[in-house]
Amino acid sequence: MIINFWTLKDLGFKSMYNGDSFGYLKDKIVTTGMYRIFNDPQYVGTTMAFFGWALKLQSWRGYMLSSIVGVVFYLSVKFIEQPHMRRIYSNKIKSKRY
After folding, report:
1. Pick from 86, 93, 94, 84: which is nearest to 22 by CA?
2. Contact predicate 63/51, CB 8 Å
3. pLDDT per residue as tens, the chain (98 positions)
């Protein structure tokens, strides 16, 4: 959960929740805070939270759900979010981060 709150601090409320889809664009892609470590820290944090609960409860269903959530997030980022970010920020991207 700390990762998710840190991401919210770095992005701001509008950017965290699909702000770019509704016309609220940053001047550049955020590369500070948790974004120095992960490209998509909100998904990493959520997957880790699911896994943490599964570990605490010793639930094989929880482990499976955590794995499924992680795979769905990965596929979503790879095939939906990254192309969307490239399209929106194509003229602002200086590195090959996306």
Report:
1. 84
2. yes
3. 677 777 777 777 666 666 666 666 777 777 788 888 888 888 898 999 999 999 999 999 999 999 999 999 999 999 988 898 888 777 665 554 54
CA dist., res. 23 & res. 18, Å (int): 9
Please tell me the distance from the alpha carbon of residue 70 to that of residue 10, in angstroms, as a whole number: 22
DSSP letters spanning 16-75: HTTGGGGT---SS---SGGGGT-S-HHHHHHHHHHHHHHHHHT-HHHHHHHHHHHHHHHH
- Provide the token pair at 20: 């770019």
Q: How far apart are CA 62 and CA 56, in angstroms?
A: 10
pTM equals 0.72
Residue 2 structure tokens: 């700390």
Nearest to 86 by CA among 32, 18, 78, 52: 78
